[in-house]
Design a protein that fits this description.
Blueprint: E1 7-9, H1 10-13, E2 22-25, H2 30-39, E3 44-51, E4 54-60, E5 66-70, H3 71-77, E6 82-87, H4 94-104, E7 108-109, H5 111-118, E8 136-137, H6 139-149, H7 166-170, E9 174-181
Parallel strand pairs: 1-9, 7-8
Antiparallel strand pairs: 2-3, 2-6, 3-4, 4-5, 6-9
């Protein structure tokens, strides 16, 4: 695996990314900067998955829904750095993470939930993780839900809906592998 501090070209690292790995994005667009004011240095998150010989990402995007797109497209089109994280939880079932993510495709993005997650910045805590899949997601809630269902609870002190992108960096079960660029 690559050193976490290295800036590595996507084409050079692509083959090392595994199903269920996480990509965290730091944007330069105005909406990204507003989100990052409250969530730290990241404004978006996605789950990597291989489909035959193509590396894809599952993401919940605004305006829109949970979708699947080529990872190369996300890295190329996102206006900012992309950090690659790996879950080190011993019970992680990567196939289940991908299966859960597939089941969420098409569900709506929830701007309301994004604002609920931002309220955590002001001290909001509590709540419980859902026992069934939510009907809509903000991006980090989606990634947190899929990973937790697959055996990797990134932020055990917070429900999925209040997980923010910085939780991946602070988590005891996540390890930054590299920063990727196109």
């Amino acid at each position: 695996m690559a050193e976490a501090k290295q800036l590595i070209k996507y084409g050079d690292i692509r083959s090392q990314i595994q199903d269920g790995d996480v990509l965290l994005f730091s944007g330069r667009y105005w909406i990204s900067k507003i989100i990052e004011l409250f969530t730290g240095k990241y404004s978006h998150s996605a789950i990597a998955a291989w489909w035959s010989d193509r590396l894809m990402v599952f993401e919940s995007t605004w305006p829109g829904n949970v979708r699947v797109v080529p990872a190369s497209m996300c890295v190329d089109e996102y206006n900012g750095p992309v950090d690659w994280f790996v879950c080190t939880a011993p019970g992680l079932d990567r196939n289940k993470v991908v299966r859960i993510a597939k089941d969420q495709v098409g569900k709506k993005y929830s701007f309301r939930k994004l604002f609920a997650a931002i309220r955590r910045f002001f001290g909001r805590k509590g709540g419980k993780d859902p026992t069934t899949a939510p009907a809509s997601y903000q991006c980090t809630e989606f990634v947190s839900y899929c990973l937790r269902e697959g055996g990797c609870d990134v932020a055990p002190d917070f429900p999925d809906a209040l997980t923010d992108p910085q939780d991946f960096e602070r988590s005891a079960v996540m390890k930054k592998a590299a920063t990727i660029h196109s």
